[in-house]
Design a protein that fits this description.
Number of domains: 1
Number of strands: 0
Largest sheet: none
Helix content: 55-70%
Keywords: Signal
Radius of gyration: 14 Å
Number of helices: 6
Structural class: mainly alpha
Strand content: under 5%
Length: about 110
């Protein structure tokens, strides 16, 4: 029984589609920017994103939390001003781990 439940959970997580939410990304970046770079800032962003985006959890929340930290560290002058803009998206593609399905399967 546990094996079947674990397999079901793995299948659910593997099928999760991550969708970028620029408003939540910007809000959580602003909320968490004062946290130390790395795990502390990413954890702050995960908590914030899960509060702001209904249904966001698991892999996607963790991935986007890490991406908020990465964007603040590497794209700070681009993303806070226009998180939905092409410059921010390109910077995240070039310098951060991909989360969005369209970026994983171009």
């Amino acid at each position: 029984m546990w094996r079947l439940s674990l397999l079901s959970l793995v299948a659910f997580v593997a099928s999760e589609t991550c969708t970028y939410n620029p408003d939540a990304f910007a809000l959580c970046g602003k909320r968490c920017k004062r946290h130390p770079k790395g795990r502390a800032r990413a954890d702050c962003a995960v908590t914030c994103l899960m509060e702001e985006v209904e249904g966001l959890h698991g892999h996607c929340a963790g991935c986007f939390g890490a991406q908020v930290d990465c964007a603040l560290a590497n794209c700070f002058y681009i993303c806070p001003h226009k998180p939905a803009g092409g410059g921010c998206k390109q910077c995240r593609r070039d310098r951060c781990t991909s989360c969005e399905e369209e970026e994983i399967h171009p």
